[in-house]
Amino acid sequence: MKKTFQQGRRHTLAMAAAFVALAACTLEGAHAQGPWPGTLPIKLVVPFTAGSGTDIVARLVAEKLGPALGTSVIVDNKPGAGGTLGAALTAKAPADGYTLLVHSAGHLVNPWIYKGLSYDTLKDFTGITPMASLPNVLVTAPAHFTDVKDLVAKAKAKPGMLNYGSAGNGSATHMNAEVFRLAAGVDAQHVPFRGTPEAMTEVMAGRVDWFFAPMVSALPLIKSGKLQALAVGTGKRSSALPDAPTTVEAGVPGSEYLFWVGLFAPAKTPQPVVDRLQAEVAKIMVSPELKERLEKLGAEAFTMPSAQFNKFIVDETAKAQQVVKAASIKVD
Cα 123 to the chain's mean position, in Å? Predict the structure, then answer.
């Protein structure tokens, strides 16, 4: 009798296990999307506020990437802490190609200035491709300075009294400002903001003396006369502001800085997914329509294969460390 009871119990447990397995298979089949990306939406996490240079590029790409992949692509702004909050969220996301990160050159600065990051910039992400290079433009309130030489002269006359804004500690706008400050040999106070729009607002009000704003964000305000452009931070002039000299031409050698925006995925994202994203984004960036839209914003397409981009990331991270050390950049 005991043996018969045990056999019945084992049979019942086996049937229960089979039912659970069958239910799981049924659910899996119900949610199966087939080859990536299927019909599931793709999220582009932007770790800065809406209206920032990084955000603008992300939205231009999302508009075209969705139709190219046959699904929807949404932009999700997660600003804060120099872009580390959005990066941390992406690093913890499943490596399945549905959560990606659009970040700037500042992504490679953060490991050197933020202690206790919950992610490793090099190990927890794979670079898919850079997307665009965006000149930063040195802006001030109208008539605040006559030119770059005037800014440098006044900063040297009052060491530590003038200030400059950024879109956050370690952001590309901050790094451009530090490269310029070191090259010019001036001492001024850094004022970090939550994002580019907030910094530009304070510059227009005259409460912040200068800011290296992404061209894509600042150009409308420059054209409307609300901001004054003194120079561009890149090594060559921008077609969007052909009369604005580079900071080197304006008398500050060694002050050029490359601000770029790129696409990243969590580490271990399948290589076929990475390759497909890279190919589609590269086609989008060099398309005549997007090229024209970028040029109007003062930006240029900037793409490369994933393997090359990841090597670029390693090299640029080392360069960022040198600037952080020279400028004594710290986060309180």
Answer: 17
